[in-house]
Write a structure and sequence with these properties.
Structural class: alpha/beta
Number of domains: 1
Order of helices and strands: HEHEHHEHEEEHEH
Number of helices: 7
Helix content: 25-40%
Strand order of the largest sheet: 3-2-1-6-4-7-5
CATH architecture: 3-Layer(aba) Sandwich
Radius of gyration: 15 Å
CATH superfamily: SPOUT methyltransferase, trefoil knot domain
């Protein structure tokens, strides 16, 4: 199946994307984000606030070892992560329903830039102060009766879209 070893994964050119989890409480959601990040060669995952960090059995249950291949870092506060990302030249988007947000199908990315996406708490979403400090918002259009999706499902959709738009070989 042409699967990479952990060492080969670390040597691969990564998608220039950092996934930031802002106070995500479910360890299964955290593990799922690690696994999707591994699948699409995401540069790293930033775990902020109450978001749990590896090693945790419940993270491993859904990550299936991706917590060992994908680089990660913990921040006590999401604003600290945001400051670091901006200092390193990342364009930062909150994934949130907001006035003026860019609908995902309309997203245009510059392949010469690095990006970060912030996904929020399962109930409260991305903190408003973090949304305000971001460079913009991306919204996944929804057409049913519900107006939110599980954070790990949202992460999968967003990571896939960034991978498609940023990866030259795809």
């Amino acid at each position: 199946m042409n699967r990479l070893t952990a060492d080969e994964f670390k040597e691969q050119t990564k998608t220039p994307l950092i996934v930031v989890l802002d106070n995500v409480r479910s360890l299964h959601n955290v593990g799922s984000v690690f696994r999707t990040s591994d699948a699409f060669l995401v540069e790293g995952v930033y775990l902020c606030g109450i978001t749990s960090t590896p090693p945790q059995a419940e993270i491993h249950k859904t990550a299936l070892g991706a917590e060992f291949t994908v680089e990660w870092k913990h921040f006590e506060d999401t604003h600290q992560a945001l400051e670091e990302l901006k200092a390193k030249g990342f364009t930062v988007f909150a994934i949130e329903q907001a006035l003026g947000s860019t609908k995902l199908p309309n997203l245009k990315l510059d392949k010469s830039k690095k990006y970060a996406v912030i996904l929020g708490n399962e109930v409260k979403g991305v903190q408003q102060s973090v949304v305000d400090a971001s460079d913009g918002c991306i919204e996944i259009p929804q057409f049913g009766t519900k107006h939110s999706m599980n954070v790990s499902v949202t992460a999968g959709i967003i990571i896939w879209e960034f991978f498609k738009l940023m990866t030259p070989k795809f």
